[in-house]
Amino acid sequence: MTLLHAKRPGLTDRNTLRAEARRSVSDGAVTVAYGADREAVIAMLQNALATELTCALRYRQHHFVAKSPVSPAIKNEFLEHANEEQQHADQIAERIVQLGGAPDFNPASFAARSDAEYVSGTELRQMLIENLVAERIAVQAYTEMIHAIGESDPTTRRLLESILAKEEEHADELSDLLPRE
Questions:
Q1: Looking at the Swiss-Prot or TrEMBL record, what is one Pfam family this protein matches (predicted)?
Q2: 135 a known binding residue?
Q3: Is 170 annotated for ligand binding?
Q4: Residues 6+ apart with CB under 8 A from 56
């Protein structure tokens, strides 16, 4: 017997697999093997989306108003982080759609859904601190989401893990830029 015709121990038999795939075509990528509470994951991702959008806007505002002898480099760092936060938001929005939801981009509800705060700034040190605080919040929130999802949704978990790695990098960069008192 060839490997292609071997039994599938522990796996759904081929005919059932095919029938289930046809039965729920409108569910897109979500199959009966999806182990998470889809609505709970979407709600979690909606909050993460609001957080990423809030951070992208805060970083962008800081990019434009930062002024100091070292501000060109920091301004560029703020803009780079703003763009990366927007990429995270786009990735999260795409995952929400894959799970059958509709991403909530309503600015009126950001404050209620975002873990991070939008704090505009005028002083460079204050901007660095506010952005570092937001990154630390994101690191904790993504770590908790990853633990909550566990093995039930590997695709969302991998997405959150990749975003977490970038948020940790942002926190390290901001910490390095923050003048010590």
A1: Ferritin
A2: yes
A3: yes
A4: 82, 83, 85, 86, 89
